[in-house]
Amino acid sequence: MKPKSSFAVGFLFVLAGSVGAAAETMTLIGPDQPAPIIVIGADALASETYAAEELATYLNKITGSTIRIVSVLELRRGDLKVIAIGKSALTSAFDISGLDVEQYVIDVQPNRIAIVGGRRPASLGKQARDAGTLYGVYDFLENLGVRWYRPEPWGEHVPSLKEIELTIGTTTSRKPSYTMRAAMSGGKSYSREETAEETLQAVIWAVRSRTNAGFWSPERAVKFGGLVDHSIGRHNWPFLIPASEYFDEHPEYFALVDGKRVPYDLCPGNPEVQRIIAEKLIAQAKRNPHRSSISVEPSDARGGACQCELCRALGGPPNARIGGQVSNRVSGFGNLVAQTITKEAPWLKVQWLAYSTHTAAPTNLEQLEPNAVIMLCPINGWDDWRNKLLDKSSRSNSLFVRTAKDWSALKPDSLMTFLYYNGYGWPGPLPITRTIADRMRTYRQLGIEGNYLPSVISWGPAGLDFYMYMKLAWNPDLDVDAELDLYYENYYGPAAAPMKAYHERLMTALEEHPHHVFSGGRGLHLMFTPALVEELGGYMDQAQALVKGKPLNERRLFGVWAGYEFARRISAILVLKKKTGIVSVKVPDPEQLAGPPDLDRPAFAGRGSYFQSNEAEQAYRDLVKWMRTVNQKDAVFDMAIKPKDDAAEIIYAKRGLNFGASFLSYLPSDVLISINQSAREEDLLKEF
Fold this sequence. Notes:
Among the domains are: 171 residues, 2-Layer Sandwich (Chitobiase, domain 2), CATH 3.30.379.10; 120 residues, no CATH class; 175 residues, no CATH class. The protein contains 20 helices and 21 strands. The radius of gyration is 27 Å and the shape is globular.
């Protein structure tokens, strides 16, 4: 397809088969020509109607032409140039029976374009799916140059074209690499006060990015082509057997710890616990028979507290693997529940995480039940963003690869990932586009079939990386350099050159960074040395000067600048710590250790030292207050605009508390007391 404008874009389907070599073209829209008509079937599906509406809207934005949508029954003899969307008499020649529900055919002929995709009726364990036609429309529009960089209207890029000329031929898309692509759980952010309009924008943006799970209701999903309805990563034990309902009458359902039953964990070895959970899941499956999977994941970082003989037997022999403290117990329990469920709801998949103290594959099972779905969690020591996944010099990445292979050897129904590229511990710049590209390409080699990324993110500092995650989850073979260049040009306009230098320098700095960078962006604070901050500041100053007086580009740049300014202030805090701080040895705080045991609590590294500085703590308080001031108009940081407790901005002594943002539970302890670094801060801060 060669749309005529100030630039030329080839009609190259990134998921495409081959197109014939003929150079014959058709003019879809041109001067002094009638606009084409979009035609849908007389009994068009909701997703086909929505696809037609999306196409009409954006062709109007691109060309200024008014595009009508009519039923095939309304088509008149004089309507010579049509775009047939979905199944109808105009597309009956295309055999779509062999297409996956997300595949599509785009056929261009002299007076007709057809875009038609696969479809599948609902069945046990599967929603009705018919997203192929809609995805074909989005591919068509993207090949015209349309991009959706953010959910808001000001985040989209729509080229202005006076003429659109298309190469005649037929293209059939490939089946996507990943059957589940999920993000945007619940909307655009967790902590910022999000409006209903913003939530809807987030849903539509996720659909345009071709995600297919995790954030919309089945009813709403009908017009988007349906969904893959997995219970993604939910810590489900406390919802299935809540202590408030069961503990008083049945304390034996709960963990035995030092001779006493405690309400914060279950006794998974108890047959009654197994029965109740299985029965509740079966009942849920029968109420919603189209659900893809349901969770039997323990409470966060729990599942192994019980010391009774039943649980000791369930766990089998000790599992000495890294991250395998309770893998045998959690998977043994999951397998037993899966066995019971398959008798009455054989269509239902049972899902749990490879996470925390049950990350490693179990050693007491020869094979998982065939209805088990495992979600691998590359968190903490199981991922290093600086290195490629197959880089054997990276202990963390090698550990993840080995773990994935161990789980695969147990033959679950499928392997998926629960990802942490979301800044939950670092709301600043996340220069991880090439890291994500490496993971999306490599995961396929490990047999991984789906990926989920929560939406906890800072939209200003990390918008580029979240956009690129969505693109790469849909098409891991995307030309990353070409797509990045388009982003720099389209999103930043006159500031494209310095902003390309800014982003590329960040990605290079990550590759060169000497310290582990892992889930949630933890460890990135040490990357922003005064020298790097000064270099990045030069690019940012140039960019701001170039967009001055251009409201759209100023608005787009503002959030990215806020991310830079956040990193600059963090760097200044580290300099201040070194200048004014007193060297202190890391020791656990008694308050941190109080309460029920948390087996995956990061805690203090247990060795090393840090600079304790009252001045740095005050600078951190000032930083958080500043972040809220720039978070008023657009979503820049995923944090509440108003603090819940003015006196609790520094919470490093009490882990796990959330004062209006996930990163406020991690950032102060990383920055102020270097909690995750087992080294002397005198050595860590040599360049500060």
